[in-house]
Design a protein that fits this description.
Layout (H helix, E strand, L loop, with lengths): L2 E3 L5 H4 L25 E2 L5 E11 L3 H5 L5 E6 L1 E7 L3 E11 L6 E5 L2 H9 L3 E7 L2 H6 L1 E5 L5 E12 L6 E13 L5 E12 L9 E2 L4 E11 L2 E12 L5 E9 L2 E5 L2 E7 L11 E6 L5 E7 L10 E6 L2 E2 L6 E2 L2 E7 L8
Length: about 350
């Protein structure tokens, strides 16, 4: 069914409106004025913009009494918000389409929930309200009034931080496919950086500073149909006091490259604890993901004797106790590499 829209935005009819309360109900839309826009356009005269109008955490009764003071106006295509584990933020988006003539038709697509879940991962929950979110997933047909060339609507995205350990960027993209008159497809995006306050579970296990090191070449194993390949070296000291080494963990084709090792040491608890000369290595990959790698050299030949444990952004890929490798070899070296601390 086509939606006929007037040139002026009717907030009451085009978006979810509710009082803000401690029960995590989406807040009312703020009046923040005209937002800054980054327009996408085509030669046929169509334009499209996607904007973050405002952001808001759950309001308290005091916030309501003070006139929704918990709303943070944005009015831009980029925004940043700090979100502790267990907290929720509402993001108010606006999509604005300009047609080259009155009475035009188009299809707008914005699968915001899917985009949110795919980009932020399992550490976040995503839901949305306003306009026709279900129709936007696959394409919502719209028709301009006979006296209108501008089509504007808003909706809310709800992001809940379950237990994220590192900051994330979320870029939401809207797509417009012109109908009458025809024209080239348009895409417009808005990006929100979610700075997280790490939960206690994000803290790496305690390590005992030591000077030995491990080397490991193309360790291969598989779990749940996902191939995991690990290679690198870790341990010992650089002249500046940092830890020597770097490593790659490739999971089903995605490479997590840790070039600066944050910690290296003996394992005091958890997976592989109690095994002689087992080591735990942690760091942040170049793609921003937190990585924890535990290794145990079980002797030759490596296959069926060496054991690995992998955790990326809080997700265990080889089970809670690690897994024997199917290919490759790791070597524990008892001698010190580099200057002793």
């Amino acid at each position: 069914m086509k939606r006929v829209l007037a040139s002026a935005l009717s907030v009451a009819s085009l978006m979810f409106v509710a009082a803000c309360s401690e029960s995590a109900t989406a807040p009312e839309a703020p009046n923040v004025g005209a937002p800054a826009r980054a327009l996408a356009s085509n030669p046929q005269g169509w334009t499209l913009s996607k904007t973050v109008v405002g952001m808001q955490k759950e309001c308290t009764p005091k916030g309501i009494e003070n006139g929704m003071t918990c709303m943070q106006p944005v009015g831009s295509t980029t925004a940043t918000h700090s979100l502790a584990a267990g907290d929720t933020v509402w993001i108010l988006y606006e999509i604005r389409i300009t047609a080259p003539q009155m009475g035009a038709t188009a299809t707008v697509i914005d699968d915001v929930i899917k985009q949110c879940q795919e980009q932020l991962g399992p550490e976040f929950g995503c839901s949305a309200w306003g306009f026709d979110i279900a129709a936007l997933k696959t394409g919502s047909p719209v028709q301009f009034n006979a006296d209108a060339t501008v089509y504007t609507f808003r909706f809310w995205l709800d992001i809940f931080n379950k237990n994220a350990c590192v900051p994330r960027n979320f870029t939401n993209t809207a797509t417009v496919i012109p109908g009458t008159p025809p024209g080239a497809q348009l895409n417009s995006s808005a990006t929100v950086t979610i700075n997280v306050k790490p939960a206690p579970s994000c803290s790496p296990p305690p390590v005992v500073a030591i000077c030995d090191f491990v080397t490991f070449g193309r360790l291969v194993t598989e779990v749940g149909g996902k191939k995991v390949v690990i290679s690198g070296n870790a341990g010992g000291n650089n002249a500046d006091g940092s830890i020597k080494g770097e490593f790659h963990i490739e999971v089903n084709g995605t490479d997590y490259h840790v070039s600066d090792i944050a910690t290296y040491g003996a394992i005091t608890s958890g997976a592989l604890a109690g095994l002689p000369n087992a080591r735990v290595i942690t760091g942040i990959a170049r793609n921003g993901k937190s990585v924890e790698l535990r290794l145990y050299d079980g002797g030759e030949p490596g296959k069926g004797t060496d054991r690995v444990y992998v955790k990326i952004d809080g997700v265990e890929y080889l089970g809670a106790n690690g897994q024997l490798i199917d290919q490759g070899n790791m070597q524990y070296h008892a001698n010190c590499r580099g200057p002793k601390k």
